[in-house]
Design a protein that fits this description.
The protein contains six helices and no strands. By secondary structure, the protein is mostly helical.
Length: 102
């Protein structure tokens, strides 16, 4: 991952924190929702984003750890979502509408 992108994201973290924009409190919940929507286990998600084990992801989903910039970018790419959606608590993750069988 290019250092410039990671540095830019880390700078954005600091900037948003100074603005008091709600962020990162719901990252774990959003991560779990996206993982389940895509039918992935913790191990499968860990492998897809280049983690050696699923323990870190479990800690993130439980809200016991904050994500690294690189992890946020990997998740955003994997699920085709914005980092704003993942990090900002004032941006909600909408669930796809369930359609009745045809």
């Amino acid at each position: 991952m290019p250092v410039v992108i990671v540095s830019l994201l880390e700078t954005s973290y600091a900037y948003l924190a100074r603005l008091s924009i709600p962020m990162i409190q719901h990252f774990g919940t959003k991560l779990r929702t996206l993982r389940k929507q895509h039918g992935l286990t913790l191990k499968e998600l860990a492998q897809a984003v280049g983690q050696s084990s699923h323990g870190y992801i479990s800690e993130l989903e439980a809200g016991r750890k904050a994500p690294t910039a690189g992890f946020v970018l990997a998740v955003a790419r994997l699920f085709s979502v914005s980092t704003d959606l993942l990090l900002r608590d004032d941006v909600t993750l909408t669930m796809p509408e369930e359609r009745p069988p045809s």
